Amino acid sequence: MFVAVALLTVAVAVGAGLALWHLRATDGGASGPPALVGALHGVIGAIGLGVLLLVLRGPARGVAAGVGSFGTTAAWLFGAALLTGIAVLMRRQRVPAVMIAIHSGFAITGYVLLLAWNSLGS
Predict the structure, then answer these.
(1) Cα 69 to Cα 25: distance, rounded to the nearest angstrom
(2) Rounded to two decimals, what is the model's pTM?
(3) Please, are residues 56 and 110 in contact by the beta-carbon 8 Å criterion?
(4) Rg of the chain over CA atoms, in angstroms?
(5) How far is CA 9 from the centre of its chain?
(6) Strand, helix or coil for residue 30
(7) pLDDT tens for residues 36-79?
(8) Which H helix or E strand runs over 31?
(9) How far is the C-alpha of 77 from the C-alpha of 49, rounded, in Å?
(10) How far apart are CA 72 and CA 27, in angstroms?
(11) From 23, 30, 48, 108, which residue has the greatest number of CB atoms within 10 Å?
């Protein structure tokens, strides 16, 4: 579980940096983030999702605290974030902010559920 949380935390941190970099580029005409950094962010997130899926195959967690389904829901949201992230990466010219907002909305919601599941699950 620790590895999944750590990898997804790194992916979220890199994603926040990418979002700020993208906003700065659209505001002042600077160049946007390189595709390689976005791809690295995606690879780390995909590996984290894979580890989370392995954790979900183990014993049930968090049922007594009412967060038993948070892990599965987080995995679905991270999957949606992965798919929308691929769409963002494939569209390298002028990525609309709404695409990034949808991607980050999925990822942030999944991350919050993952943290709740990790902290309240036993």
Answers:
(1) 39
(2) 0.90
(3) no
(4) 15
(5) 8
(6) coil
(7) 998 999 999 999 999 999 999 988 888 888 889 999 999 999 99
(8) none
(9) 10
(10) 37
(11) 48
DSSP string, 56-119: HTSS--STTTT-TTHHHHHHHHHHHHHHHHHHHHH--SS--HHHHHHHHHHHHHHHHHHHHHHH
Q: 72: which residues sit within 8 A by CB, 6+ positions away?
A: 56
Q: Is the dihedral of CA 11, 12, 14, 20 positive or negative?
A: positive
Cα distances (angstroms) measured from residue 67 to each of 79, 112, 114: 19, 12, 10
Residue keyed to tokens 């954790």: 55
Both tokens of 119, joined, read 């902290």
Nearest to 72 by CA among 84, 82, 58: 58
Kindly state the tokens that stand for 14: 């890199």
